[in-house]
Design brief:
The complex is a heterodimer of chains A (325) and B (342). Chain A is built from 9 helices and 12 strands. Chain A has 325 residues and is of the alpha/beta class. In chain A, α3 runs parallel beside α5 and α4 crosses α5. Chain A starts with a strand and ends in a 9-residue tail after the last strand. Chain B starts with a strand and ends in an 8-residue tail after the last strand. In chain B, strands 6-7-8-3-9-10-12-11 form an 8-stranded mixed sheet, with helices on both faces. In chain B, strands 2-1-4-5 form a 4-stranded antiparallel sheet, with no helix packed on it. Chain B is an alpha/beta fold. The chains are: A alpha/beta (325), B alpha/beta (342). Chains A and B meet through α5, α6, α7 and α9 of A and α6, α7, α8, α9 and α10 of B.
């Protein structure tokens, strides 16, 4: 068993937008551009970025809910893109996803027991009646009570619904959980409960998390390592401490300074960026250059900076930080 | 200046539902002084948006019902005003912005049409001219022209670059942050005294959120606005507001200047809320939530509505509603731990 559970190599995902008369004009949007990542077993990798940065697309490409345009996805050494439909289905028992909106990801016509039991039926062929003990164990693990078994999702609050989603994901004993903004629809007091539950489950079952989020304070609490995305590219990747204390990329620095700290006397000078990412990527050069607040070199407008190693386990894609050999 | 622009006293609001009467607001007290930026914080369902909608009387009744209380604006009780005059009042004194900038703009009209409409509408409501002077009014074309230059001026004020060109764009050609700026411009068209901002940055990315909050602060300085900022994000409050009111289940449970609230939170709920936000020093497993669930509004707990979840609950918490207890100057907590008038 290697230490790396999931490895992504040069992942690319293009979307084709059609326009013009009869959709004859094609415009290609590169949502994920040459992303390589590794997630060590039992650890949490945070995938951070603003809307449109491609973080959810990466999550969906890993599960092959979306077909990547190019690249390799290795789970435990197996190339997921080489699997046929039957093998792919089997592999999904190892990888489960938890979604942002707990109410939209639960079927309102099924009881909690049926929701939690459905993966057992699909993957292990156990009928709903045969798995009652396991279902109730799962419910107990995520902090739901026995009397919730016959209730419907609408009878629960958002936090409880998210617990149901987690129980369902754990039913097939996965190795990897892809958490797509699991707490952004929840209030802070409930968010704290869910984050603690996720940490406790990780310790208990040795789970590996890919934690997708736009909230850096949550990422700092949850993750071991952070990868920052900007318009489909990784701009910086580092252990979580380094990200918050010694970030090199101007975008990371701006993003961290823009987190509103619950501290009125905070001494942090906020970096307020110009513009927004929707204006799209420049045709050449660094994708972040139009909004960059740091020194802009000539090269920034002509060459795209590669992701280079600047320190142990610390990679940055910025012309201001050349590779250290 | 310490003259109260808005003073809400003991406001009770109920809604008839199929399951019974939901007591959505149960005695809200809130004071806003001129030039204040007051943050109204609370979790889902605590009544913060309902309070905001009750001020301009935008709650449909029925099913809503205000059973008690006063909303004093410049000393005048808005609840006593005839309904017909509320529209004029809103145009003259209030601006509102909401959470989702996309749904508040009409996708079929350009920004020019929507902003000019807003400006003309405000003017029509502000300058009601008696009949025989009508003839001396500038022609409609002239008014439209003036309104257009005013619209461009407003767009400049809220920091939209190339206002003369972009005014001809449709809402979908603007990004989320820019749409929110358009809505702020629209809210400012009538030179309001009070701006009610209901979660104005919740749908935006952090870097854009920082831009919008900075804009709101600068407008407060430039135009002498008073702002009621509703949010669930304590970080936003700490960076933007002068004062904070924390709501829980239909009541304001603590009101304080922003520094006092974060440095000496008095109410156990406020303390729990601040602890629940992960910060840099939180160690793994060290984050504390507030156990339990928010109460049902149809059958809320007796006494203090927080007592079933409170870690420091006293015997009479379950029977008596706590009154205001003074913690410091301008710092009030509605909790039995701090006896009334002490």
């Amino acid at each position: 068993m290697s230490d790396i559970l999931l490895e992504i190599r040069n992942l690319r995902k293009d979307f084709v937008q059609r326009g013009g008369l009869f959709g004859r004009q094609e415009h290609i949007v590169r949502a994920v551009d040459d992303v390589s990542l590794t997630v060590p077993r039992g650890k949490t990798l945070g995938l951070v970025g603003e809307s449109g940065s491609g973080k959810t697309t990466i999550g969906k490409c890993i599960l092959r809910l979306m077909e990547p345009t190019a690249g390799e996805i290795l789970y435990d050494g197996k190339d997921l893109r080489a699997l046929d439909a039957r093998q792919l289905r089997a592999s999904r028992a190892d990888m489960q996803m938890i979604y942002q909106s707990p109410s939209a990801s639960l079927n309102g016509r099924m009881t909690v027991g049926q929701i939690v039991g459905e993966p057992l039926w699909i993957h292990e062929g156990i009928s709903n009646n045969g798995a009652r003990d396991r279902e109730q164990d799962l419910m107990h693990v995520v902090g739901l009570k026995e009397e919730h078994y016959f209730r419907y999702p609408h009878e629960f609050s958002g936090g409880q619904q998210q617990r149901i989603g987690i129980a369902r994901a754990l039913a097939v004993r996965p190795g990897l959980l892809i958490l797509d903004e699991p707490t952004s629809a929840l209030d802070v007091s409930v968010q704290a409960q869910i984050l603690n539950l996720l940490q406790q489950l990780q310790d208990q079952f040795g789970l590996t998390y890919l934690f997708i989020s736009h909230d850096l304070s949550v990422v700092r609490y949850m993750c071991d390592e952070v990868a920052l995305l900007y318009l489909g590219k990784i701009v910086e990747r580092a252990p979580v401490r380094t990200t918050f204390e010694d970030s090199r990329h101007p975008y990371t620095q701006a993003l961290i300074s823009a987190i509103p700290e619950p501290e009125p006397d905070s001494q942090n000078e906020q970096i307020v960026l110009r513009g927004d990412p929707t204006s799209g990527r420049p045709a050449r050069g660094c994708p972040f250059a139009p909004r960059c607040h740091a020194e802009i070199l000539d090269r920034c407008e002509t060459d795209e900076p590669p992701l280079v190693t600047v320190d142990l386990a610390h990679q940055v894609a910025c012309h201001l930080h050349p590779e250290v050999r | 200046m310490s003259e109260a622009l808005l003073d809400i006293q003991d406001l009770h609001l109920e809604f008839d539902t199929f399951d019974g009467v939901a007591k959505v607001l149960a005695g809200v007290n809130l004071t806003l002084e001129r030039g204040d930026v007051l943050g109204l914080v609370g979790e889902t369902g605590c009544g913060k948006s309902m309070t905001a909608l009750a001020i301009p009387r935008l709650i449909s009744m029925p099913p809503g019902r205000i059973t008690n209380g006063q909303i004093l604006f410049n000393g005048e009780d808005l609840l006593q005003r005839p309904t017909g005059s509320m529209q004029q009042f809103r145009a003259r004194h209030l601006g509102m912005i909401f959470q989702d900038p996309t749904t508040n703009l009409n996708p079929l009209f350009t920004i020019r049409e929507q902003l000019v409409d807003a400006v003309l509408y405000q003017q029509a409501n502000v300058k009601s001219v008696p009949g025989r002077w009508r003839g001396f009014l500038p022609s409609a074309r002239q008014m439209r022209k003036e309104a257009q230059s005013r619209a461009i001026e407003l767009m400049g004020l809220v920091g939209i670059p190339d206002a003369e060109l972009r005014i001809n764009d449709y809402p979908h050609q603007f990004s989320g942050g820019m749409r929110q700026r358009v809505l702020i411009a629209m809210a400012l068209a009538g030179e309001p005294d009070l701006l009610i901002a209901d979660e104005p940055t919740t749908a935006l990315d952090v870097t854009i959120q920082a831009q919008i909050l900075r804009l709101i602060r600068s407008l407060v300085h430039q135009l002498g606005l008073t702002v009621l900022l509703i949010t669930h994000n304590l970080g936003v409050v700490a960076n933007t507001c002068d004062k904070v009111a924390v709501m829980y289940s239909g009541r304001v449970i603590e009101q304080a200047p922003v520094r006092d609230l974060f440095h000496q939170p008095a109410h156990p709920y406020t303390q729990g809320l601040i602890r629940a936000v992960p910060s840099g020093s939180t160690s793994r497993g060290g984050l504390q939530g507030i156990p339990g669930l928010i109460p049902n509004l149809i059958d809320p707990p007796q006494g203090c509505r927080f007592h079933p979840r409170c870690p420091q609950v006293l015997e009479h918490c379950a029977s008596q509603v706590p009154g205001p207890g003074a913690i410091g100057s301008d710092h009030l907590a509605f909790c039995h731990l701090y006896p009334e008038g002490a």
